[in-house]
Amino acid sequence: MKKKRLVILGGGESGVGTALLAKAKGYEVFVSDKGIIKEKYKKVLIHNEIEWEEQKHTESKILNAYVVMKSPGIPEKVALVQQLINKEIPVISEIEFASKYTKATIVGITGSNGKTTTATLTDHILKQELNVGLAGNIGDSFAKQVLEEDYKNYVLEISSFQLDGIVDFKPQIAVITNITPDHLDRYNYQFENYIASKFSIAKNQTAEDYLIYDADDEVITNWLKTHPVQSTLLPFSLVKVIENGAYLKQENIIITIDNNQIIMPTNKLALEGKHNLKNAMAASTVAHLLKIRKQTIRESLQNFQGVEHRLEHVLKINKVQYINDSKATNVNATYYALESMDAPTIWIVGGVDKGNNYEELFPFVNEKVKAIICLGVDNEKLMSTFGGMVDVIAETQFMTEAIKMAYKIAENGDNVLLSPACASFDLFENYEDRGRQFKEAVRNL
């Protein structure tokens, strides 16, 4: 019998993880990357005798595939992907492929913002009592973990790009943190295409499965009215009373599932800000479903350290707090950051604008921001949008320069916040690189 041929487009974390799992499951595997494959991944491919190529896609070796696993970074519009689709060769994501080889309980978490914090927090709570792997958009690839660890439970942070490549994938528990316009360049600038992509996390769910979502998010609630799902719904809200799900009552989170209720005081939560109350509600609801003890959930919420580059308190220098929120790559994320500021703020913003509309930030800028430092190659839109709102607005293309400017302007009790609302690729490798440079520049003051 001829081996089934799996072609993998993209030799990064998800590609190489899938290659290892596929080889172990008896596939003939070929990895093709249009860019350069990182040294550490090349070593793994060579060591495991997996055929690969870089800086090109050899069509004759790709168009004869039985199935293709595409890295989430490659858009569907690419000619090669279109050729595969026209030939009716299935093009799937790592999440789809790997999920076929595990019997684990899967918690899938998606959303425009908050998914990394919610996934990391959920993992932090569950691993106190369960055998859990954290994967998807974070850490080691899901496929590699299925091969090497095969945990009993997985918490997967899943992007819309990963969801675009699913066929049968079905998490027993799905979470949608929120949906705001993001990555619209990948969805023909149609917001509803992006919404549909996020909701595909629930498309294979049945009434035995759960969908946890933000009931205060009109995009989500309106979509559910016109596109009902089979899942058992567990909404969470800061303003409504929720019978089945989670809500806020005075200073407590109340979670009810099948008349089984738990109460979590919010006054000791480690993470600040309204959006983190929601992330805590989502994570606690998952934990309650998986029968984690109340005391464990409470303690975990109180000692959780947060996620790097997400409202990360770096240092206090001369009574000025420096905060790294480099992970804020869209306006909605920066909205949460500015909302949670409780002192006059010097805001560092800018990068690759994805068609941003900054209007929703105006109230916070007027109320809390005393100076703006634009850090990007092209800052014109920011300068014209915010120029009249603050006394000081400056621009630079160097992180060290931005920090020096902020240091000069800052007074006792101020915050210096890096929350760019934009992608980082104009001046940095990625948002992590941007965040690390911020931290380094602050430490060098």
UniProtKB/TrEMBL annotation:
Domain Mur ligase C-terminal spans what residues? Answer: 309-422
Q: What class of enzyme is it?
A: ligase
Key words, A-Z: ATP-binding, Cell cycle, Cell division, Cell shape, Cell wall biogenesis/degradation, Cytoplasm, Ligase, Nucleotide-binding, Peptidoglycan synthesis
Give the reaction(s) catalysed.
Answer: UDP-N-acetyl-alpha-D-muramoyl-L-alanine + D-glutamate + ATP = UDP-N-acetyl-alpha-D-muramoyl-L-alanyl-D-glutamate + ADP + phosphate + H(+)
Subcellular location as annotated: Cytoplasm
Q: Name one Pfam family in it.
A: Mur_ligase_C
Gene Ontology terms, MF aspect: UDP-N-acetylmuramoylalanine-D-glutamate ligase activity
Q: Which residues take part in binding ATP? A: G111, S112, N113, G114, K115, T116, T117
Which Gene3D superfamilies does the UniProt entry name for this protein?
Mur ligase, C-terminal domain, Mur-like, catalytic domain, NAD(P)-binding Rossmann-like Domain
Q: What does this protein do?
A: Cell wall formation. Catalyzes the addition of glutamate to the nucleotide precursor UDP-N-acetylmuramoyl-L-alanine (UMA).
Q: Give the family this protein belongs to, as stated in its UniProt record.
A: Belongs to the MurCDEF family.
- What is the protein name for this chain? UDP-N-acetylmuramoylalanine--D-glutamate ligase
Species whose genome carries this gene: Lacinutrix gracilariae
